Amino acid sequence: MNTIIFRTVAPYLTALMVVFSVFILLRGHNDPGGGFIGGLIAASAFAIYGIANGVAPVRRALYFHPITLAGFGLFLAACAGLPSILAGVPFLTGLWVFPTVFGVELALSTPLFFDIGVYFVVVGSITAIALGLEDRMEN
Amino acid sequence: MEVYLAILVGIFFTVSIYLLLSKYVIRVLLGVAVLGNAVNLLIFTAGRLTREVPPIIPAGLQVPVDPTANPLPQALILTAIVISFSFFAFLLVLGYRSFQDLHTDDTDSMRFAEPVDEPAPPRGY
Amino acid sequence: MTGMNPTIVFLLSPFLAALLSPVLVRIMGANAAWLLALIPAGIFAHLLGYVPSVAEGEAATMGVVWAPSLGVNLSYFLDGLSLTFALLISGIGTLIILYAGGYLKGHAQHGRFLAFLFLFMGSMIGVVTADNLIALFIYWELTSITSFLLIGFDHNRMASRRAALQALVVTGGGGLALLAGVVVLHLVTGMNELSLVLNSGDVLRESPFYLLAFWLVIGGAFTKSAQFPFHFWLPNAMEAPTPVSAYLHSATMVKAGVYLLMRMNPVLGDTLVWQTVLPVFGTATLVIGTLLAIRQTDLKLMLAYTTVASLGLLVSLTGFGNEKAIEAAVYYLVAHALFKGALFMVAGLIDHEAGTRDIRALGGLRSAMPLTFAAAALASLSMAGLPPFIGFMAKEEIYAAIARADAWSVAITLFTIIGNALMLVIAAAVAIRPFLGEAKETPKHAHEGPVLMWLGPVVLATLGLVSAIVAHTTNHLFVSPMAGAVAGAEVDAHAAIAFHIGLPLALSVVTIALGIAVFCFLPQARFAMAKVLHRIGWGPDTGFDQFISGLVSLSTLITRFLQNGRMEAYMTTVFLIFGVAIWYGLIRYGEFPEFPQFVTPTFYEAGIFLLAVLGLAAVIYAHDRLTAIVSLGIQGFAVAVIFILFGAPDLSFTQFMVETLSVVILALVMTRLILDKTDHRPFGERFFDTAVALIAGSGFLLLLLAVLQVPFDPALSDFFTAYSRVVAHGRNIVNVIIVDFRGLDTMGEIAVVMIAGLGIIALIRVKARRPRAEAEQ
Lengths: 139, 125, 777
Fold this sequence. Notes:
The structure holds three protein chains of three kinds.
Chain A: H1 4-27, H2 35-53, H3 55-62, H4 66-79, H5 82-86, E1 96-97, E2 100-101, E3 104-105, E4 108-109, H6 110-138
Antiparallel strand pairs in A: 1-4, 2-3
Chain B: H1 2-20, H2 25-46, H3 71-102
Chain C: H1 6-28, H2 32-36, H3 38-48, H4 51-55, E1 60-67, E2 72-78, H5 80-103, H6 110-129, H7 133-151, H8 158-189, H9 194-197, H10 201-206, H11 210-224, H12 233-236, H13 242-251, H14 255-268, H15 272-295, H16 299-318, H17 323-354, H18 370-384, H19 390-402, H20 407-432, H21 451-469, H22 471-487, H23 503-520, H24 522-536, H25 540-562, H26 567-588, H27 603-621, H28 625-645, H29 649-670, H30 683-708, H31 715-723, H32 733-741, H33 743-765, H34 772-776
């Protein structure tokens, strides 16, 4: 699998897949997609990069340890439930605001942040698993 | 249509159980992977089938006009797929590590925690 | 239910003291006892405030709602019976805390010991004051558990551990019987509160479940109060430090059984079985207890066996069936708590100061320990039933109650005389042998103990005298209300220490004469008893060991059978039971699905089903691992296609990604394993596995078909579909369910995913412990 073509293409493919995964994540509320699927796509992207160029560059590119990303995701998901407590409704009840930024109406909501949290957990955990195994195989 | 899927579910279960009954870690792992699919399909079928209409509300409407596929089993299965994958990976690594330490994938030879000649528990107080 | 009440705070305060005591002992040492004793003293003082109103026949109920849906409340009930008990527990508790402060001075675990004692005190006060049946049971079991902790306090010794376990098994088992008993009481009467159940005696006595309730309550009471044949745990419990023996195993906890019987007397009493079982077992316990006491030479054991005997006497009187007997039981209960508590503390003092409790090694301590001797003498005179002590009043009342002209009463009276006479022998032995006679060399040079320790016995022994002298007040304030509560009718007690020439006095004289006669030949009697017991050889105590040993053997056998260490055996068991359970249900209830109608599928649907089946077959028959992995991928992708065919694009995407990742990581790992290629198992095994798989698999098929043939209830799905856009602003209903409607669920699920990831990282990183090759060299 260590062909020169694969090694050359892999970084671009990875970047493309990560961007695509974010797109899938954000459209998830209205069209097929969401945090789980987006997270899996991003995780596959990192796994491909790891297979092509070795684990060390992926870890450098990620900067954080993948399981840290997962922890951050879980934290974010839990925090997404807190505003509802402050608003006096049950934990994790969805709250929405529609601010207008530069003439475009944005739909911001706690479920959005929750979904982003899911995304990070899935990316982090699955990437950690994949990189861990690849690491092991290299040595 | 459900009948065919029900039969398929039966086959999935039979195959996965057959694999799980084997003594060899690798075959058990394959069995676990198939079992996940079997259960997901079971839930999916039990929620009734609708051809080709995803549970998505068309843009500009408040509720879907035509009947759609049942969204509830889909939501349950979606998370189940990811979780069963995580556990499949966990079992895989567990099997791999035990192979490294014990040099076998035959579960009958893995008697580290439950040795064959375990002494009887102590009497007295 | 009158809401929160200061009394509830007082009743629960020992639990607070349990938290405080380790800290206080660390700061103040043994002197913390002075401060901590204020808590039971406070309870005692507070409860004294109830005495006048209760003496007028009023009963107080109070409490807070706990779990209303289950009918469980933290409710309390104070009438003559529970108030007298609570006063005894808190009053003696005060002295015991002080005594324990001196007894364990300097012990490394002193604070823990006091904490256990307070936990017990709180539980015991709860037992006697609880109104709610379930609360009663909970407190009851708490006393068993704290008793376990206290008996096993010196857990480095095997004898302590054995005694603790024995007490827990016997009394805890009885507690379960009590739980069943209170459930029956609740079902029959429909009441949750004791104060209400007490009015339902007639309903209960006529109920077909009366006998069941009776035996269950008896099971709880007899085990707790060490009635024959469950008496053996109590003498063994003497392994506990002496403050525990004095408090739990003579004055309070063992009387919980008697309390229960007295409490239930208005409800369960007044029947033939009640008036037969209680006197028979009680009298048997009385005689056996005193006979076994004669055999002992250890001060504590002698006292322990007489405690068993006294409990027998109390049970017998409670069940005797007339108000006079109940009145006598009340006198005797109070008298016993006073003199036995004092004598145990005396035994502990002697042990503490002289270094031994063996009656043969002790003598002439009267000049070295004058205060202790005085307390011992006063308490023993009360125990022997001599005037002018409360013990004498109790004995007079007993004889007045049971000495009747019928054969049954005569028999009971005869045995009671024997028991009382032997009790006198022990009382004399405990008071005379260590103190009078010539001084003997003891392991420690004996001198008077610290004030913390002699205060308790002196106060209790003196009370035994004072309560008899002010008999009129005692009767009015304590005995009459308590006897009234037990009898379920008004009782006017009027015993006094003045002599009344009559049958009771004559019987007392006989008792005393018999006792003195036996005392003169005590060594011979002890020798004879030892010989008899040696001849019998077996007893319930040995039986307990055999029972525990048998239990261990049995559970070893079962564990070895079920947990045989072979994974395929576990798997076979699980799936066989699964399959059989489904098939059995379908056959037993005739719920086989009807034969389904087959409609022709489209060609691509048929194709994808076929592909899935082919993938599965290839997984089984794969001759090398790579084929197996690829085949696994085939069935997975087939499932993904099925999802998209039936309107689940989200699932399909996810499935595709997961199957891809699965194949990748499988390939990554598998390439490193050097394994056999195929299934080498013999044909027979494979045939059996196939059969099991077919049974379970077909079970799932039939189950699913049956499910599909009942009408579908779309309530939940309709709800989600209807509100997805309107409430949650999302058009993808599946995603809305995941992140919004069932968000909490999802949060748990992503936590699981993350934990699996953490586990894998840990597994990968952990170093190999020892490769087998090295280990074998």
